[in-house]
Amino acid sequence: MQVRASSQPQHSTVSGSLQQQPLSPSNPAQHSASQPVLEARNISKTYRQAGKDGIITDALSHITFSVARGEFVGIMGPSGSGKSTLLNCISTIDEPSSGQVLIDGTDIVGMNARQLSTFRRDKLGFVFQDSNLLDTLTCYENIALTLTIKHTPAHDIDTRIHAFAQRLNVAQVLDKYPYQISGGQKQRIAAVRATIGNPQLILADEPTGALDSKSAAQLLQTFESMNNMGSTILMVTHDPVSASYCQRIVFLKDGVVEQELTRSSDDRSAFYAQIVKSSAEIEGGIA
Which pTM was predicted? Predict the structure, then answer.
């Protein structure tokens, strides 16, 4: 976050080629592959500070980037860089002061509350730092609720839940209540809930923040599986290990895009080292 500046900083890009796993021919994520799922066009978000007449703070300043269909992209940056504000603008929780947010070709800026509610239901999936599961429902019922809200035929719900649960390795806890399972298992159930409705974009906000290293690795492997199944994922994280599972990282600093880093091979340890180096440079002010 920064006080309004007179010019827009330029950002650097480190790129390479990443071999993505092929999608199933029946997967909807394979269609319209040339159109980005997410386009952030010149997004700015400003706040006028109470009691300081005329002082405007830029939380985001002219942010432009896109996420291709089937990509797994991370957003990183120091505290106060604008990560949460950007995610809020993309997730329909907040509205940018200017610019466009296009998801699956639709500009969500300016939609009314009813339109946003329908859009979130049909187009977006969410995984939060807290799983946000309902303790009064079993894991199976928590997932089924998502499909029920989307008016999925009852005879399809059971088949889809068990198919997704098997592929994402959580079938063994479907009949348990959230308070009966571990934090890592809760987050993996939340991941199934997020992806089972075939959303155009899954948004993850620090999903490993409350997990131990083993549970975090299991969740990130679940995200990889979701991505290999065709899901498009945008994840905010401060953790280089979590970020190393992504295909591309967008670094923010002071509300602007400072750098982009693209994974050039399947060597996650090498990408991790690049992320750590870039993070240190950006946070140290030598990028």
Answer: 0.84
